[in-house]
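Hi U.,

Before I forget, here's the chain from the pilot set. I'm dumping it here mostly so it's searchable later in email.
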Amino acid sequence: MTPVKSGTGGARDCDHWHEGAGFVTAHIAISLMYEQALQAVNPSIALPYWDVTIEGTYYDWNDFRTSSVFSDDWFGDAAPGNTARTLTQGRFAYVPVMTDAREYSAQYNSYGLLRSAWNNDRCDFRRWERTVDRG
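Structure:
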């Protein structure tokens, strides 16, 4: 599934995953693909569902990061305060970005990392951004 997302999310003509109306549809579609792959191995498995309306009900824009889903037991800090902007604790701590991605995908940056070509970040770990452009 990584080639599907990196191939269309990092396409030079358009980020088909993160800009515009396709955001929700694209992420739901790949989640369904993942769930169906899991169920091909074990039909009783279901992909966990995160009801984001809970955060919308109980938290406002300024404090949603205090939700339990952003604890180390779940997804981790929504906005790590370290200079690397990467998780340092929990199951997603120091998630590596694929290096030498030229052998794997048509989408990679100038450092050979599996990122969009315009994302010239050289950090070897997945980063989490503190701000979101709400357009």
